[in-house]
From TrEMBL:
Its EC number is 3.1.3.16. SMART domains: PP2C_SIG. It comes from Streptomyces roseoviridis. Residues 170-383 form the PPM-type phosphatase domain. This is PP2C family protein-serine/threonine phosphatase. InterPro entries: Bact_Sigma-Reg (IPR052016), PPM-type-like_dom_sf (IPR036457), PPM-type_phosphatase-like_dom (IPR001932). GO terms for molecular function: protein serine/threonine phosphatase activity. PANTHER family: STAGE II SPORULATION PROTEIN E (PTHR43156:SF2), STAGE II SPORULATION PROTEIN E-RELATED (PTHR43156). Keywords: Hydrolase. SUPFAM superfamilies: PP2C-like. The keyword Protein transport does not apply.
Length: 390
């Protein structure tokens, strides 16, 4: 435990760009580690890229079929025998369920990785929290996340997102956007309190910078209203006014807004456009339809009303943008709800954080080419509910 406290102190006092150096020094001195490397998951969730190698892509390892990728996917430490009696321990680096990357620690003798596994896993968790804080003051970790250059629109969109996954006792969330390095206007946002989870899935209009600017305006208007403590119907109305005041109806934005009660599972929903919701319950996938209302910003002073929706423990909710359910195959066939239902069934054993990436891989096969023409957004919510003592 003295080693853990030393690592925590070193990370807390290190310069924002020197977190890896700080943890390396403690791992060498206190645990006899030979070396350590921090890998960050790239925006497309295809590779893990080292923080200490510039350009970072030079030392990238694949997320699939690599020891570090196994630790990242399973969110559990993974020990690797690298020969000559040496071990490498791969540790997931995550913060409240948001999976950032992997810390790989090399030991000169076998058995050391097993001996220190639990304690080093806790150090990796502290490192993750410090990386999130450090990103306010350095670009190092954000640079390590990109294997290609982001478009300006994509840069704006990634900065707007809350994270790509989140975990609490009551639920797990996972989300992903494609094309990761050239997204336009699709977006997701969430925020939780002690008793509620608010989740927004946005289908933006247009392309490039204009789409990113529209989404930024709408999301910040929704956040401003949410942080004022008002209902989601009024949040939608105020965001609608903000978008209309700027664009005068020339541009608008679709959003599906959900406000979940963590104790009862009852949700209030505002459906203002095209994002769709499918539910997996007791092995059956079905689309959940709401009464569609006008997209944000289409007309002046639109009133929005909420609808009730009940979610049960064990439910899996999958939210998709039109860049998923409407994408066409080379023969012009839309992906549609039937294909989506099959994809949701085939990924039912995966954790929520893995589901969006797995479904997007299937979508690529349907599309017949790697690059989509439109944003594709998937959000997966696994609902466990809150146990209330009798």
């Amino acid at each position: 435990m003295d080693g853990f406290l030393a690592a925590e102190r070193a990370l807390r006092t290190a310069a924002p760009d020197a977190l890896l150096d700080a943890v390396r020094a403690v791992l060498a001195e206190r645990y006899g580690a030979e070396d350590a490397e921090l890998y960050m998951a790239d925006y497309g969730l295809t590779v893990l890229q080292p923080v200490s190698v510039l350009p970072h892509a030079l030392g990238a390892v694949p997320l699939n079929n690599s020891p570090a990728g196994r630790a990242f996917g399973a969110q559990e430490p993974y020990r690797e025998d690298i020969g000559n009696g040496r071990d490498r321990l791969h540790l997931p680096v995550s913060v409240r369920g948001d999976r950032l990357g992997v810390l790989s620690v090399t030991f000169p003798e076998g058995g050391a990785a097993r001996r220190w596994e639990t304690e080093l896993a806790e150090i990796a968790g502290v490192l993750g929290r410090e990386v999130v804080v450090a990103e306010r003051d350095t670009d190092l970790y954000l640079q390590a996340r990109r294997k290609d250059r982001l478009t300006l629109a994509a840069e704006m969109q990634w900065q707007l997102l809350p994270g790509r996954s989140c975990s609490r006792p009551e639920y797990e969330l996972g989300a992903q956007l494609e094309p990761a390095y050239a997204i336009f206007g699709d977006n997701f946002d969430w925020s939780a309190t002690a008793d509620r989870l608010m989740l927004y899935v946005t289908n933006g209009m247009g392309e490039g910078i204009e789409a990113a600017l529209l989404t930024n305006l709408a999301i910040n208007a929704l956040r401003n209203a949410r942080r004022a403590g008002i209902s989601i119907a009024d949040q939608a109305a105020l965001a609608d006014q903000a978008v209309y005041a700027h664009y005068r109806g020339r541009c608008h934005l679709s959003v599906l807004m959900c406000d979940f009660d963590l104790t009862t599972g009852r949700a209030s929903v505002v459906d203002a456009g095209s994002p769709q919701l499918l539910r997996l319950r007791d092995g059956v996938v079905e689309r959940v339809d709401f009464e569609a209302q006008l997209p944000l910003g289409m007309f002046e002073e639109t009133d929005y009303v909420t609808q009730d929706f009940q979610v049960e423990p064990g439910d899996r909710l999958v939210f998709v943008s039109d860049g998923v359910h409407a994408v066409a195959s080379p023969r012009g066939e839309a992906y549609g709800n039937a294909a989506l239902a099959r994809a949701i069934q085939s990924t039912r054993l995966l954790p929520a954080a893995e589901v969006p990436r797995a479904i997007l891989r299937e979508l690529t096969g349907h599309r017949g080419r790697p690059a989509p023409d439109d944003d594709a957004l998937i959000v997966c919510l696994d609902w466990r509910g809150r146990h209330v003592a009798p």
